[in-house]
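Q: How would the C-alpha cells look for this protein?
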Amino acid sequence: MYAMPVGLSWKVPGGRVASANITPDPSGIAHHDEALFKSTLRTGYSGARLINQIMPWSTYCNMTEEDLQAVFAYIRTLQPVHHRVDNSLEATYCPQEKSSHGAGDQNQPVSLASLGTNQ
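A: Here is the predicted structure in C-alpha cell form.
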C-alpha cells in the first residue's frame, strides 16, 4: 500500500504549495534525526529553513515529548518513497502525481506493483 501521498498541492496566497515527502527516503526526511524532526515541529524551522506555513507545525508544537517520539518512530516504519518535492523551485510536471510541483520533473513514474499493493 502506498504509505502516504507526496506532492499533493494546494492553492495558497502567492501560488501553490506541495506536501513534502516525509518518508524515510533520501528524497524525503531520511536526513532528519529525532532531534531535528522534533525541533522542526516545535519551531517551524528545519535547521535554518522556515517550512511552509501550510504545514500546521503550530498545531504540533505543543505535543508531548512522548507523542513526538511516537510520530517519529511511526514515520521511520513507512515504506520509503522516492519522490522529490521542492517548493522553492518552479512547478514542473510530475509523472508520479500527474500534476505539477517544484522538482516534479525530477521524478519517475511509479507502478502500483512496485509499491507492493494489489490495486
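The CA atoms of residues 7 and 97 lie 7 Å apart.

The beta strands are 9-12, 15-18, 45-46, 49-50, 91-94, 99-102.

Upvote if useful.
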